[in-house]
Amino acid sequence: MNYNLYSLIGLVAAVCFILALKGLSSPKGARRGNIIGAIGATIATVVVFFYDDPAEGGLKNLPLILIAIVVGVIVGVPAARKVQMTAMPQLVALFNGVGGGAAALVAIVEYLHLGDTANTAEVIATVFTVIVGCVSFSGSIITFLKLQELMTTRPVVFPGGRFVIAGTLAATLAAAVWVVIELGTNPLMILAALSLLFGILFVLPVGGADVPIVISLLNAFTGLTVAASGYVLDSTLLIIAGTLVGASGTILTRLMAEAMGRSLFGTLFGAFTAKPQEATGAAEERPVRSGSPDDVAILLNYARRVVIVPGFGLAVAQAQHTVRELADLMLAKGIDVAYGIHPVAGRMPGHMNVLLAEANVPYDQLAEMDEVNPTFGQTDVAIVIGANDVVNPAAQTTPGCPIYGMPILEVSNAANIIFLKRSMRPGFAGIENELLYDPKTMLLFGDAKASLTKVVSALKNL
Amino acid sequence: MTPGMSVIALLSIFVLAVFVGFEVVSKVSTTLHTPLMSGANAIHGVILVGAIIVAGRSDSAFSLTLSLIAIVLATINMVGGFVVTDRMLEMFKGKKKPTAKEAK
Q1: Do the interacting molecules here have an ipTM over 0.90?
Q2: Residues A225 and A297 reside in one and the same domain
């Protein structure tokens, strides 16, 4: 196959990717968009096997390449198929990380291949890919560990951390300059190691609701590394695909940051200056009002309007079907029911929409934050199911706390508040929630699904 | 190297792609943030193409090992990414039917 035909087919794949992103941006075309993207990726992958590079000849090591692809499929597909919907955010983070790692490896190998023939522009593109690819890789792994709760979910801030981060960044940049001037394998390996370290340090201080933004940002980063390696490999397809992801990922990151009411800059660098939260040990001793499922059912039975606020706890308990059952029951009793969806409830923006859609919750019952907030004044009961940070008034009242400035669902305006919680443990951001001690709050402890099931049966008997 | 394009041509492609990327996702509802991110994530798995190219011209065991690892990682990224995105989007389908059921 000659270069022109190869490039033309690459263009077809690139168009597929544009259509894929376009499709994914609208509810109607989303699924088709994803499939078009997959088709584009398949075309791009298949065609590379048929291209004879005039300078290099056909592909060597063919059996090994095919085996490696099969291994990737064997690992990737079951992971994607079997993952619980709750664990999806970390899986996406992980996929992003390995993509970044792959881009960095490709750049290193190509650098070894080019040797002395590499021109300065190619070396700079290589250096860029290695740095950003490695940061994306190690950063995503840390994000994965945080979301999987294999390590603390709170911002990790250690004394002098800022200086360590700044020092690592400076060392990384110095190594980058060294590679460009010296052109050697060893400097490149040192650069890769420093970049990996920087990625870890960069993500460690990020905590709470900022994690999804970081995933999105690292995703955009990986896109740019793919574009840069496309430049080194002289592949227009990689340049287009990588740039598309880089650009759309940047926009998406900004949209998410806006949805959370924070500046992108603040998200990334705010944590650098954050002080470790004081332990509010004394506060936890305060009395709370806890109720039984029957108390909750009675409260609901006499309500005219109920707003359900789902959070990560709902996802963990897989309670989306039970919550729908409860909502249906209330609707049958003539109670007005809406779901108040915070844009970043759960571990990913839109996480709750995905979950509730799985339970076939009608679309028109899902109210976005701006829509539902003014209605809390007329709401008799707000049921908060496994959510914490997104309803925490500290975001409005306590300057300096990690979620300060994030718009919240103002459930405190409702006449009654019911919290379904596993324990008194604070939310993902690790901040005490004053609302739990509010006199009009009732707590129902236990697994969200079990609690909801009891409430449903209690309500049925009323 | 391939019979390459000029730096300027590649730069032009890059800049145009930036604008297309901005334009294409500028209006997207919160609901679709997660699948869109996941789909974009799968698209950059196309680095697989680059990994295959470098593996196909590797002479040393070191290069070959690195590039084979790259292929495995990129395949996981690409294939897994599209599959998981499809799973997310699958849940959005059929949301009209329950509305009708609700109305009864």
Answers
A1: no
A2: no
